[in-house]
Amino acid sequence: MVVLEASNLKAYYVLRRGYVRAVDGVNLVINERSIVGVVGESGCGKSTLARVLSLDLVPPLKLVSGRLVIEGVEITEASLNKARRAVAGVKVSLVPQSAMNAIIPVARIRNYIVDIISEKTKLISEEIVMLAEKRLKELNLPVEVLDMYPFELSGGMRQRVLIALATLLNPSLLIADEPTSALDVSTQKIVMQTLYEIFNRGLVKSMLFISHDIATVRQIADRIVVMYAGKIVEDGATEQLIHEPLHPYSRMLMFSILTPELEVRERVRKLGNIALIGEPPSLINPPHGCRFHPRCPLAMDVCRREEPPLIEVEKGRFVACWLHTKR
Predict the structure, then answer these.
(1) Residue 174: CATH number of its domain
(2) Burial tier of 149 (Cβ tally within 10 Å: 0-12, 13-18, 19+)
(3) Which residues are bridge partners to 226 per DSSP?
(4) Could you tell me the CA-to-CA distances from 161 to 12, 115, 124, 318 in Å, in that order?
(5) Which pairs with CB-CB distance under 8 Å and at least 24 residues apart come from 245-249?
(6) Confidence band (pLDDT; 50, 70, 90) for 326?
């Protein structure tokens, strides 16, 4: 069953100097009982995609065009406000970056949760607190944190409180945006275990896990999506994409970022052209054709002229590259 489907989705930051095309023609399907990882360099549009899919669209971010369907609810620019009330936090929920700053510092956790959930449901405060207590216990967190202020919690505890809040209404899709950033290694492991436990218990139907760390994504995702300059350039099963990346950018990214596993690194090295050089392009004025061509050692004339479509080269394997596309 399809939980989320995005077709040619475009969302731009509208600035005085122009449009920042942070999500520019994204096609994505997330099925029930699937964990999809999203990887790419900083500035490639990962976090903006998270905001768009969770309907956290506030100026200057604007939904420009495309089709987005979440649990059968179609969302357009015209229906965004109505859909946000019915979908955001209920059918899809976001665990944002930076747990240190995501929670209001002057409110007790109990009051913060009640304020957030009461906007999305007709539950009274007592019912919300009961749900929160139950979820905290399920995540092996002491219920006493409800009476604490954010500054009294460690970064890891705050992140787990945000996860508890995001899953309180059992959304169909949980989007976790860099949930382990700024945490030490042992705390990262706890947060990852918490997310996996939520998924295994069926508290959420599916998950979108965003990170720049491919090794972390590999631990949890059954599928990986590679983003570059606002677009998806490759999409496939986790192990297949890591061991046999098709897009030149994916190859370079796997070799550059992947935690050293000699067997994997050697296999990627044999594919050739592994050095990731240069900087990502400006999303205000991106290159014509394939956006990766200025950095790609395999670029052809067609790459500079025409944008490659994202095509299915084999079952469940998609790539946007003229090396794999018949013209």
Answers:
(1) 3.40.50.300
(2) middle
(3) 39, 234
(4) 31, 15, 20, 36
(5) 245/271, 246/313, 246/317, 246/319, 246/321, 246/323, 246/324, 247/292, 247/319, 247/320, 247/321, 248/273, 248/292, 248/296, 248/297, 248/298, 248/321, 248/323, 249/276, 249/292, 249/295, 249/296
(6) low
Partnered with residue 29 across adjacent β-strands are 5
More confident residue, 31 or 327: 31
* Count of residues in the chain: 327
pTM to 2 decimal places: 0.92
What are the angstrom distances between the C-alpha of 91 and each of 53, 84, 122, 140, 272? 11, 10, 16, 24, 43
* 37-60 pLDDT per residue, tens: 999 999 999 999 999 999 999 999
| φ, ψ (nearest 5 deg) of residue 3 | -90, -40
> What is the per-residue pLDDT across 112-166, written as a single tens digit (0 to 9) for each?
999 999 988 889 999 999 999 999 999 889 999 999 998 898 888 888 999 999 9
Q: How far apart are CA 311 and CA 110, in angstroms?
A: 47
| Tally of domains within the chain | 1
Give residue 102's domain range. 2-324
Q: Give strand pairing partners of 65.
A: 10
- Assigned token pair, 283: 């999303």
Neighbouring CB atoms inside 10 A of 60's CB total 11
No. of helices (H) and no. of strands (E), the chain? 12, 12
